[in-house]
Specification:
Blueprint lengths: L2 H28 L5 H24 L3 H22 L10 H37 L18 H56 L3 E5 L5 E4 L1 H7 L3 H4 L12 H14 L2 E10 L2 E13 L5 E10 L1 H45 L6 H28 L7 E4 H13 L8 E6 L6 E4 L1 H17 L5 E9 L3 E8 L6 H5 L16 H11 L3 E7 L3 E9 L3 H17 L1
Parallel strand pairs: 7-9
Antiparallel strand pairs: 1-2, 1-5, 3-4, 4-5, 6-8, 9-10, 10-12, 11-12
Helix pairs in contact: 1-2, 1-3, 2-3, 3-4, 4-5, 9-10, 11-12, 12-14
The structure holds adenosine-5'-diphosphate and magnesium ion.
């Protein structure tokens, strides 16, 4: 049974029972004769009908029909009660209003008008029937019957008519309004819940770190991404001052707050941000946090770990510069080699002339020899700057490394106080690539190491193999490099060695790149340098792409 049909039944039972009890109390205390028999009868009929309504309710699930049946029953019972207690003189006619109000509240305007019309018809009919003596009026000892005239009768019926309808419409208006308001409230409540869930989801799932701060700079909230970036958990962070987390030093915090008041946001990029024994690059923005009412309630700090991005950016920049060098050298090739060829050709023709003295012949030969030498130097230089096409084969990288080191050990560049220590294991390992170019890399790295140890020292060369790469490590005890030198290590034409060209590392970088590998540097001034070359054990895709790129650079030249 619908819940308000059940409620109507319960309320009715309560009302009737209360009426009955009240009448009984009055009967016995005031000791006056009341129409108590009719109340007994009404109560009995109501209780009987209650059972009927419950039965109907089990059968009919429709809320409207259930309520309509009950309200019609009520109107009938009320009419009977009114009839037996003096009809137009009955004190119980107000009960119609109760039914009309109930109908309006539960079924709104239509229900209210339905109940009001029922009441008007029943009450009016009853009045007419009695007035015209069509049915007898049960005599009541306690009622002094009014002397009804026609006009008084119609006035009475008309007043009731107006009262019933007015009650129905007013109550319906109020309850419809209430209904609408509560529906709106429900919608608002749902919206609010959805908004809150969205808010929390957004905050939880954005990849940036988010911290909220009290006006004093104490952390009040940190999101999961924030914890991850800072390598900590929210319990450790909440309650601490922002200066303790490394974002602002105490004096910077005061500055930041002042700037914030003027500019609305403070942006900072810190490259030496300490996170768990590691230095990271962090970018962060501090903004004021206001409540919905616009009251300042603290600050929000949004931050990102930029370390990987910066590394990528630096690599890209370097690649760009390398490409530029490639183009530049192609330009130089045209500018120098073409006139050189013309000079050499002309001299060759002149040299055949009979008119030249032996002395002149000799000078011509010098021109030819030197221009050939110059041509070769340029060719060498260009080969360095712009490596030739890779001739990819399977080769033994461990053997290539050993041979290159043997070669260097016997070269005049190595002094007696230079030592090489080798840890090459396994002694043989096959990779795919251009063995000549890889040898060139080893040669460059080892030579740099010895040039960095002008007063002698030790170069340790070791290898390492894992699931996807082959790593070669050149570890020297030389003078090391400053931060700035390390950053510029692969840039062409930067040299600190007396007879250097600044091309060795740039070329090595290119070659390793073309093989899909990486070069890393770790160094400290005065403490030596470690250069690590990692080559992929399977090098398909990257290699092909890089070969293509070399072609395209060549094509533009
Ligand atoms: P070059 O050897 O012609 O100077 P490189 O490209 O090989 O050019 O090296 C560039 C610069 O990097 C060197 O001039 C030197 O300052 C620095 N460098 C390279 N390797 C080392 C090393 N093992 N130890 C110290 N500095 C090095
Ligand atoms: Mg070098």
């Amino acid at each position: 049974m619908p819940s308000d049909a059940r409620m109507l039944i319960a309320v009715r039972v309560v009302v009737v029972t209360t009426l009955l009890l009240a009448a009984l109390i009055i009967q016995y205390t005031v000791a006056e004769v009341l129409p108590i028999d009719y109340l007994y009868a009404t109560a009995a009929v109501t209780y009987g009908l209650t059972l009927l309504y419950i039965g109907v309710g089990q059968l009919l699930q429709s809320r409207k029909i259930n309520l309509a049946i009950q309200l019609s029953g009520d109107l009938l019972v009320e009419t009977l009660l009114v009839y037996f207690t003096g009809a137009l003189d009955s004190p119980f006619s107000f009960l119609y209003l109760v039914s009309i109000i109930t109908a309006s509240m539960m079924l709104y305007r239509r229900g209210g008008l339905f109940a009001a019309s029922g009441a008007v018809i029943l009450y009016g009919a009853l009045g007419d029937l009695i007035f015209y003596n069509l049915i007898p009026l049960p005599q009541q000892s306690w009622i002094v019957p009014t002397a009804w005239t026609t006009s008084r009768l119609y006035l009475n019926i008309a007043t009731n008519f107006a009262g019933f309808y007015a009650t129905a419409l007013l109550t319906a208006y109020i309850s419809e309004k209430l209904q609408k308001t509560s529906e709106e409230l429900d919608v608002n409540r749902q919206n609010l819940a959805a908004l809150r869930a969205l808010n929390e989801n957004v905050v939880e799932s954005i990849p940036s770190g988010l911290v909220t701060l009290s006006p004093e700079g104490i952390v009040t909230f940190v999101n999961p991404a924030g914890c991850q970036i800072l390598h900590t958990d929210s319990r450790t962070v909440i309650g601490r001052h922002i200066a303790e987390l490394g974002f602002f030093r105490t004096e910077e915090w005061e500055d930041a707050r002042r700037t914030l008041a003027a500019e609305g946001v403070v942006r900072v990029e810190k490259n030496n941000f300490r996170v768990a024994d590691d230095e990271r690059s962090l970018g962060y923005a501090l903004t004021p946090l206001n409540t919905l009412q616009g009251v300042a309630s603290g600050y929000t700090l949004i931050f990102q770990d930029l370390t990987d991005m910066k590394k990528l950016e630096a690599e890209l920049r370097l690649k760009d510069r390398m490409a530029a060098v490639g183009e530049l050298s192609a330009g130089i090739a045209h500018e120098i080699r073409n006139p050189l060829a013309a000079i050499a050709g002309s001299v060759q023709v002149l040299k055949k002339s009979e008119a030249l003295s032996p002395q002149e012949q000799r000078l011509m030969s010098i021109i030819l020899k030197e221009s050939e030498r110059l041509n070769k130097s340029i060719a060498d230089f260009l080969r360095f700057v712009r490596p030739q096409d890779k001739r990819t084969t399977e080769f033994d990288i461990a053997a290539s490394l050993s041979e290159t080191l043997d070669l260097l050990a016997n070269s005049p560049e190595l002094r007696p106080d230079h030592r090489i220590e080798r840890h090459i294991a396994p002694p043989s390992f096959t990779l795919v690539g251009d063995s000549d170019q890889i040898r060139q890399v080893f040669w460059n790295l080892a030579r740099n190491a010895f040039q960095a140890m002008p007063n002698g020292g030790l170069l340790r060369v070791s290898t390492e193999v894992d699931a996807d790469s082959y790593r070669i490590c050149f570890n020297d005890s030389g003078r090391g490099m400053s931060e700035v030198d390390q950053r510029r290590l692969f840039q062409p034409f930067r040299t600190n060695f007396p007879s250097g060209t600044g091309l060795g590392m740039a070329i090595s970088y290119r070659i390793v790149q073309a093989h899909g590998g990486e070069i890393e540097v770790a160094s400290r001034p005065g403490a030596g340098t470690m250069i690590t070359v990692s080559l992929p054990r399977r090098a398909a895709a990257t290699m092909d792409r890089n070969v293509d790129r070399t072609h395209s650079v060549r094509a533009t030249g």
